[in-house]
Amino acid sequence: MKPRHVLCFIFLLLSLHGSADDAVPVFSPKVGASPAPASSVKEHGLSAAECNRLLADFQKAQAAELQKLKRANQAEMKAYDVSFNSRYRAWVTKEKDARHKYFRDHSDLKREEKRAYIADYKDREKIFLQMGSEERQRRSAAQNARIDSVKSDQQSHLKEFKEILSHGDRPPVYLWPSS
Asked: Whole-prediction pTM value?
């Protein structure tokens, strides 16, 4: 290794691990001793720029988490719509074949009987479509509940995050979004 590289390496190690002068002293509290002054508590805290950067990163992470959830919800609804449409097409095909077979087997039906059969078919179709619509509404309500839950969690985490930053401390990892 060249001497210049050795010096860079030593400098890098010192900057990562710090020197003995940077070590935080361990205090053993004495009975009746007054607490340390506020200035000594703040000397190892975060700067205002670091706090602002952390807050901005935190808010971006929260927005990304919410956007990811919304995209997942959209994909889920699209998949449901595709699935329902294919089930509906299969149902219509099955009903059409059954209707044709019924009319073929009962060629002596009167006009009113045929109309009654078609009216029953329309009622069955209406019920099928209504069930699909209700299922879609249930899924949408569940998704909205999940979004509301995430938003309320994010608000409480943001409040706690800001409170910890106001003291100049680094917020814990569990407050960050899990995305």
From this structure: 0.65
Tens digits of residue pLDDT in 40-70: 334 458 888 899 999 999 999 999 999 999 9
Tokens of 139: 């899924």
Domain spans, the chain: 45-168
Query: Where on the phi/psi map is residue 69: left (φ > 0), alpha (ψ -120 to 50), or beta?
Result: alpha
Left (φ > 0), alpha (ψ -120 to 50) or beta: where does 154 sit?
Answer: alpha
Contacts of 153 (CB under 8 A, 6+ apart): none
Distance, in Å, from the CA atom of 107 to the CA atom of 94, rounded to the nearest integer, reads 20
- Strand stretches in the chain, DSSP E: none
Amino acid, single-letter form, for residue 104: R
Question: What are the structure tokens assigned to 126, written together?
Answer: 């209406």
Give every CB contact of residue 121 below 8 A, 6+ residues apart in sequence.
95, 99
Count CA within 13 A, CB hemisphere, residue 149: 7
